[in-house]
Write a structure and sequence with these properties.
single chain; Lipocalin; 8-stranded antiparallel β-barrel; 2 helices
């Protein structure tokens, strides 16, 4: 296959921000989870299901779109104690390697940047749907990606000791990104 026909086989998509988002959960006071979301997710995906290694993912999350449904906590999470959105307005992920992991699932390794710190992480991307026509004649597909990171690996070290023992904020952050992709061209 020529380089031109290989490039043609890779479908180009943009993330539909109106139908996509990133959620997280983290342990709170060692007794329950706090859940939050980022409502502004954008990016591009080049996808070839016949040759996943030729695919790529580039995602940007607007860090200021964070909401835990508690305004005071949201402001603290956006402050210099945590995300410091004034200095680091975006959270990004850029894939480096994509390999199949069962039917309609992939292991995606790439660089995640949070709070100005970049670390390689592995995402499990599953629930990759077949392409479907939308009511406007376009083509769409969906996918869900998940991973768990240590917030300390990204310089998010603020915490508070509790009188009863333990800490206010857990170390592990469970992340889920759900996207709807719109085919371009």
């Amino acid at each position: 296959m020529s380089t031109t026909s290989q490039a043609a086989a890779i479908a180009q998509y943009e993330i539909d921000p109106a139908h996509s988002g990133a959620q997280f959960k983290v342990r709170h006071m060692m007794i329950a989870n706090v859940r939050g979301e980022f409502s502004k997710v954008s990016g591009k995906v080049a996808f070839d299901p016949a040759n996943p290694a030729a695919s790529s993912i580039d995602v940007a999350i607007d860090a200021s779109s964070l909401s835990t449904r508690e305004p005071q906590r949201d402001e603290h999470l956006k402050s210099a104690d945590f995300l410091d959105v004034a200095k680091y307005p975006s959270i990004t992920f850029v894939s480096k390697k994509i390999v199949p992991d069962g039917k309609d699932a992939y292991q995606v390794s790439g660089d995640l940047t949070i709070h100005g710190v970049t670390r390689e992480v592995k995402l499990l991307v599953d629930a990759v749907t077949p392409e479907a026509k939308d009511p406007w004649g376009g083509a769409r597909r969906g996918a869900t990606a998940s991973t768990t990171i240590s917030r300390k690996d990204f310089g998010l070290t603020w915490n508070m000791a509790l009188e009863a023992g333990g800490v206010l904020v857990g170390e592990d952050i469970h992340i889920t990104i759900e996207v709807e992709l719109v085919r371009k061209g």
